[in-house]
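Retry 2 of 3 after timeout on previous attempt. Resubmitting structure tokens to design endpoint.
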């Protein structure tokens, strides 16, 4: 059975207690740090008064990154598939 950890993460001046798998700790801490960094960037770049707005902007930014990676991966997969088909055709013509 995997070990459970109780940790506290601070995001936007709020503390969130979590019970997690030990293997998740590093990723969650890095994610919280990235969110805090992005919050500071948005607060410096824009005159945002409400933390809710800053958090919404962070969520949109991270979601957009995930979606773009998914699109990029699909494009790469399509390109690789085309190359494999061409290679297979070339090999078949020589057999």
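Retry 2 succeeded. Sequence:
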């Amino acid at each position: 059975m995997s070990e459970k950890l109780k940790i506290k993460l601070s995001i936007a001046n709020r503390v969130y207690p979590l019970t997690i798998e030990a293997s998740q700790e590093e990723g969650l801490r890095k994610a919280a740090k990235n969110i805090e960094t992005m919050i500071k960037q948005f607060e410096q770049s824009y005159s945002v008064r409400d933390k809710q707005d800053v958090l919404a902007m962070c969520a949109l930014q991270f979601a957009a990154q995930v979606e773009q990676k998914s699109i990029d991966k699909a494009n790469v997969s399509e390109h690789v598939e085309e190359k494999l088909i061409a290679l297979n055709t070339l090999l078949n013509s020589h057999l």
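Attempt log closed. The longest helix spans residues 51-94.
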